[in-house]
Amino acid sequence: MNVQFRASPDRATATSVKTAIADCDIHPARATKDELYPYLAKRWHRHLEVYDKHPYQGMMEGPPYPKAQPNASRRDAYPPEGGPQGSSLSFMQQQHLDPNHVVLGVLNPLNTGQGLRNHDLSGAICSAINDWQIDKWTSRDRRLKGSIVVANEDGLAAAAEIRKRAGDANFVQVLLLSRNVEPLGQRRYWPIYAAAEEAGLPVGVHAFGFGGNPITASGWPSFYIEEMVGHSQCQQSALASIVLEGVFERHPKLKMIMIEAGFGWAPSLSWRLDKCWQRLKSEVPHLKRPPSEVIAEHIWWTTQPMEDPERRDHLFDVIDWVGWDKLLFATDYPHWDYDEPSRVLPAGVSDANREAFYLNNARKLYGLA
Amino acid sequence: MTSPIPDGVDCDLHPAVPHLTSLLPYLNDYWRDQVTTRGMTDLVSQSYPLNSPISARPDWRPAQGKPGSSLADMQAQAMDPFKVRYAICNPLYGVQMVFSEDMADAFCRALNDWLVKEWLDKDPRLRGSIVIPFQSVEKSVAEIERCAQDPRFVQVLMLVMGDMPLGKRAHWPIYAAAERLGLPVGVHAGSNYHNPPTSVGWGSYHIEDYVAQSQAFQTQLTSLIVEGVFARHPRLKMVMLESGFTWLPPYLWRLQKFWRGIRMETPWVDRAPLEIVRSHIRFSLQPIDAPPDPAVLNRLFDHMQSDELLLFSTDYPHWQFDGDAVLPEGMSRDLVRKIMIDNPLATYGRLRQSVLEEITP
Q1: What predicted TM-score, i.e. pTM, was given to this entire model?
Q2: What is the pLDDT of residue B45?
Q3: To the nearest 10°, the Cα dihedral for A15, A18, A22, A27?
Q4: Which residues of B touch A225 (CB under 8 A)?
Q5: What is the CATH number of the domain that holds A357?
Q6: Domain total of chain A
Q7: What is the extent of the structural domain holding A319?
Q8: Does residue A4 belong to any structural domain of this protein?
């Protein structure tokens, strides 16, 4: 987080990062509203002007919970040439990629065609976003890799988009959001997992999204902080659904990444799932192994916003339980709750674990070793 | 195994209403007529299907009738073996699920009266929770005030999933009444199913609903803390029942971090969430979502950074542990005493008062 409120002795001794890193969560933005038009059929230009995006929420413009800062982004990240934060490649290079020694940056475009009620529009915008990622970003800076965004509520169209991009080295994963019309293990999403496995691409599940369900199981809360914190509970339920529906039994080679949702809750959720599965396995006979084993084998976690306990031994306990080989460093650039690379890991980590955390796990997972 | 000590408090037991018709004697003519004329069915919640393995431990399942419907069984299976001084009854009968607040109110009143007559009157160790029709705040307050006249009611009981988040201002009169009457508010696992049972929609399976309880508790804690319930009601205590607790430390790390970043949004939250939890929130012991390895569990206790948060519970008759292993292996003697005696008495003012009356000559 780029807001510091107290001096922490652990943080003060943190080792600075002078070596190469992977940033597994970067958010590229459009400089103007019509930047996508060259990649969209004419029909959709007019449609967007008249009806706009028609998402699973009420606001025509902007989020229902106002962010803490404009565009939920750093105030110092506006490009000098204008446009919102994250919309200029040269400024991203100058402010983030170069000084932080980013050798692999994974782009996760938000505000795409995901979470729209008109599924044809959803597919058209997602495909346009994928073309735009190549044109504006990945073809101009080889450090950057794209995510295939897909019409998440239309499994067949999403699978077709994945197959269209399969083998294209501009992309390293498929991108979903955690909040959808149904929990992510449901069958309407299975074609996405089949196509991703077939293409040899991991599926990243980024916190956020709209699917029409209240962000708590007790209705809509009042505040932005409840939405922010609530993303990790949504992610827990989405992951439980994926495991309990047997997605990984059907797709044994599929890998998934939980992005920007925390990882501290993973051990507790795994233990709870195991305990319940011991009692209730007759209800889910397709699930052959303890859920904790499935999670340990198939799930990776991005680090931002980094778990931040008062005592670093608590952090190390949790990382030991999750696995040093399962964490992928991420900054969330240019968002306001950005994690500064040099301040994320406290002192006391072995060189091998630090290198795995900052770079090697990502290279290995994305096949870029 | 860690041995329980005598004179503890079991903070979560579930006496079962045999059938909706069991409440008929406690309903007025109008509602008796409604139940019979309309052919209303038993109010069993999806949260606890009667034959689900989680709903009753195999050796606690009676030959006939619902698990938890026999006082003699509860005495022989939970209260006697663990030698408790008090046992707090949290009825989970599905009275909150109905959509009419009038009907929910009638059923809650009947349920509370039934608990007094069929349970509390029959064993002096038993204490009760006031079940309220929480979709109507006004009726809830009236029911709290009515039942609180009986000192054996020691807390108010809500479900973790209802119509709206628990911290919402509309609920505050409930908390004001509870605080005024010295009653903690217990929040128990379960939903009235007026919203999807997870924050990402309806899952396919019972196991998903059960796992999701702990996520619901997390979102409710956020709501209670950031809406400012405890700033407004500094003497209010709340008890999370059958919530699990191993999720608490990482949950608080995240909430604390975001609160530091965006506390300008909720300036009345003038203490760190961690401190608010330590002052106001308690958790029942069962279920323990952790591996059986005592080394790991002791690390988790250390992560909680307080030995005052947990209250002993069996969750009778739900299946959370086997044999008499209600306390996990490797717990220190001090922690056992805190969890079984000190923490419950510090939480429940009315139990503290009862103990005083018992030991005063």
Answers
A1: 0.96
A2: 96
A3: 90
A4: 222, 226, 255, 258-259, 262, 265-266
A5: 3.20.20.140
A6: 1
A7: 19-365
A8: no
Instruction: Output the pLDDT for position A15.
Output: 47
Q: What is the pLDDT of residue B358?
A: 87
**Cis bond leading into A221, ω under 30°?**
no
pLDDT score of A369 = 73
Query: What's the pLDDT at A7?
Result: 43
pLDDT of residue A17: 55
Residue A349 is predicted with a pLDDT of 96
Are the Cβ atoms of B259 and A225 closer than 8 angstroms? yes
Residues of chain A where predicted confidence (pLDDT) is lower than 70: 1-17
Instruction: Find out whether the peptide bond into B6 is cis, omega within 30 degrees of 0.
Output: no
> Quick check: is A128 in a domain?
yes
pLDDT of residue A14: 42
* B231 in Cβ contact with B179 (< 8 Å): no
**Alpha-carbon distances, residue A343 vs A23, A74, A348 (angstroms):** 14, 17, 13
Query: Tokens standing for A101?
Result: 């020694």
- Kindly report the nearest CA distance between residue B223 and chain A, in angstroms: 7
Contact B11, B344 (CB under 8 A): yes
CA B71 vs. chain centroid, Å, equals: 19
User: CB-based burial of residue A337 (10 Å sphere; 0-12 exposed, 13-18 middle, 19+ buried)?
Assistant: buried
**Residue A299 carries which side chain, given as an amino acid letter?**
I
Please tell me the predicted confidence (pLDDT) of residue A8.
46
> Burial letters for B339-353: b for 16+ Cβ neighbours within 10 Å, e otherwise?
bbbbbbbebbbbbee
Residue B57 neighbours by CB distance under 10 Å? 21
Tokens of A98: 């170069």
Mutation site for B-interface testing, chosen from A225, A310, A332 by largest number of B Cβ within 10 Å: A225
pLDDT averaged over every residue in chain B = 97
DSSP 8-state assignment for residue B116:
H
Residue A275 domain-assigned?
yes
Q: Which residues of chain B have pLDDT under 70?
A: none
> What is the CATH topology of the domain spanning B8-359?
TIM Barrel (3.20.20)
In angstroms, the Cα distances linking A247 to A6, A251, A284, A295, B75 are 43, 6, 12, 11, 44
**CB-closest option in B164, B210, B255 to A218:** B164
Distance CA B346, CA B350 (A): 10
Instruction: Please enumerate in sequence order all residues whose Cβ is within 8 A of that of B15, keeping only pairs 6 or more positions apart, or say none.
Output: B68, B69, B71, B74, B89, B91, B115, B118, B119
State the residue for tokens 């503890």.
Answer: B8
Interval B39-91: pLDDT, tens:
999 999 999 999 999 999 999 999 999 999 999 999 999 999 999 999 999 99
Chain A from 168 to 207: CB within 8 A of any B CB = 178-186
A7 found inside a domain = no
Look up residue B234 and give its DSSP letter. T
- Sequence-separated (6 or more) residues with CB below 8 Å from residue B281: B221, B224, B237, B238, B239, B240, B309
